[in-house]
Amino acid sequence: MSQTLIRPGSLSVLDRSQKINGTYYIQTWGCQMNEEDSEQIALCLADLGLTQAATPKQAQVVVLNTCSVRKKPEDKAFSFLGELRELKRARPDMVIGVAGCMAQIRADEIRRRNPFVDFVVGTAQVAQIQGLVEDAIQTRKFQKRLELPERKGTVVTDVPQRLLERPGKLKAFVPIQYGCDKFCSFCIVPSTRGRERSRPTAHIIEEVTKLAALGTKEVTLLGQTVNSYGKNLAEGRVPFAQLLRAVAEVPGLERIRYTSPYPRDFKRDLIDTIRDVPEVMEHCHMPLQAGDDGLLARMKRLYTLESYAEIVGHLRDAVPDIGLTTDIIVGFPGETDSEFQGTLAAMERFQFDGAYMFKYSPRPNTPAAELPQVDQKVAENRLAELIKVQTEITLQRNEAQIGKSFEVLVEGPSPKDRGSLQGYSRCFRMLHFCGDEKLQGEKVTVEAVSSHLWGLRAKIV
Ligand code: SF4
User: Which of 93, 192, 357, 413 is most buried when burial is the number of CB atoms within 10 A of its CB?
Assistant: First the structure.
């Protein structure tokens, strides 16, 4: 039997004091920023009175939070919409919304191909979602909210509103910067998320303080180029290292991560802060993207292999056990075999603990999409070769940890390893170990006893 969204009282009067009776489901693709946006969307929908459903079939409001960074997640979102078409046919009172990066740049196409969609909301307008759901219930008229705030002069006044009242949890994402000013030639993010804007430091500290009071022990500060944080703020320039030190002062907070730093913006004060501030974790995910200067220049990455190597050297001098991970793209337009060999050599040279490795995916309206493309079979073979090389490096690096001790923040039972607890070390290694579930949320010291591709098995000491 179909269920109906019910707002108690007259449906013609919108009143936030009246809650909506119904359930919601959010499907998320993409990066941590999208995961964080989905959490905000969930808070907005819960604030309307909706409760979470386990499947889209059981939900009256379904929101797709989409990703455009490669073609694959876009295809998945369109195929998911295809499945929702049938549900909406059976239950016309259902509300379907599309959010995220694909919504930002393909809103008209989404609606044209899926006329049953009720609203499309862009990356900077997540806070509008309550009004969009209410309007959809009341009027059934399609709406879109796609405004991307411009940077106004030198002062930022237009960062998104956020709901800060949320349930307590051990680890949380905190966005500190939106958009990106780097314009790498392969990347669609500057179009989907707009120009770089930083959140005022006071807002960030307020959010982290609230989280810590609710029991959060670890925060991950999010930004597309997180270490370029702090330009164009009303309060004046705030270097990222200064923000890290301010966040570390929040009572109750024990660990701070950040992702992703941009190599060119990695300054000495940040390296000193990672070394000196105990709350800042010894992990750095710094995208390299390619191991050849010609490729880096065509990608419009604003650094060279040697300047990247210099930062890695300084980081490892300052914090010898730092965990280093990266992102790599293979098959970038015009990539020659010798350029690809340069990338393989860079992986051997830098000995990353792990890497996200992808085949280049042309994105519309980006300069790289107009360049002559690499044969797909060649690109696939290169990706397989790269993964093989990095897998070997990760296995060796994990094996070298056997016998070492790690401080782990216990997240709880491992979903993949029944009977074990799991948590991450300060250098962001996953560890599984036996122990009492009551340790959840505590920090324990463990010793690694065996190594795997995913991380380490350990025992509590
Ligand atoms: S730094 Fe480059 S790859 Fe990263 S979000 Fe900005 S434009 Fe995209």
Answer: 192
Ligand 1 pocket, residues with Cβ under 6 angstroms: 180, 182-184, 187, 189-190, 224-225, 262
5-26 residue pLDDT tens: 655 433 333 455 568 889 999 9
User: What is the arithmetic mean of pLDDT over 86-109?
Assistant: 95
> Which domains, from first to last, does the chain contain?
23-145 (3.40.50.12160), 156-281 (3.30.750.210), 284-400 (3.30.750.200), 405-460 (2.40.50)
CB 99 within 8 Å of CB 58 = no
State the Cα–Cα distance between residues 117 and 125, nearest whole angstrom: 17
Q: Report how far apart, in Å, the C-alpha atoms of 81 and of each of 41, 133, 273, 368, 378 are.
A: 18, 17, 46, 29, 32
Atom of ligand 1 nearest to the CA of 193: 5
Distance (Å, rounded) from C-alpha 275 to C-alpha 320?
10
Residues 6+ apart with CB under 8 A from 281: 218, 255, 256, 257, 426, 427, 428
SS3 category, 240: helix
Predicted confidence at residue 149, as pLDDT, reads 77
Residue 61 Cα to ligand 1 middle (Å):
32
**Chain-wide mean pLDDT for the chain?**
92
Report yes or no: 203 and 155 within 8 Å, Cβ to Cβ.
Answer: no
Indicate the pTM of the whole model.
0.92
Q: Whose alpha carbon is nearest atom 1 of ligand 1? A: 182
Question: Residues 422, 411: contact at Cβ < 8 Å?
Answer: yes
Ligand 1 centroid from CA 182, angstroms? 6
Q: How far apart are CA 438 and CA 460, in angstroms?
A: 14
Structural contact between residues 163 and 43, judged by C-beta atoms closer than 8 angstroms: yes
Q: Return the ligand 1 atom nearest residue 225 CA.
A: 1
Distance 277 CA to ligand 1 centre (A): 28
| Of the candidates 200, 263, 255, 206, the residue with the CA atom closest to the CA atom of residue 233 | 200
Locate the ligand 1 atom nearest the alpha carbon of residue 262 and give its number.
1
Residue 215 CA: distances (Å) to CA of 50, 258, 281, 377: 25, 19, 18, 49
* Ligand 1 atom index nearest CA of 301: 2
Q: How far is the CA of 109 from the centre of ligand 1 (A)?
A: 25
